[in-house]
Amino acid sequence: MKVTVVGLGPGAGRDLTGRAREALEQADLIIGYTAYIALIREAFPEKEMRSTGMRREVDRCREAVEAAVSGKDVAMVCSGDSGIYGMAGLVYEVAQEYPPIDIEVVPGITAACGGAAVLGAPLTHDFAVVSLSDLLTPWDLIEKRLRCAAEGDFVLCLYNPASHSRPDHLKRACAILLDAGKAPETVCGYVRNIGREGEASVLTTLEKLGEEPVDMFTTVFVGSSRTKVLSGKMVTPRGYLQREG
Ligand code: SAH
Question: What confidence tens digit (pLDDT) does each residue in 126-152 have?
Answer without folding.
Answer: 999 999 999 999 999 999 999 999 999
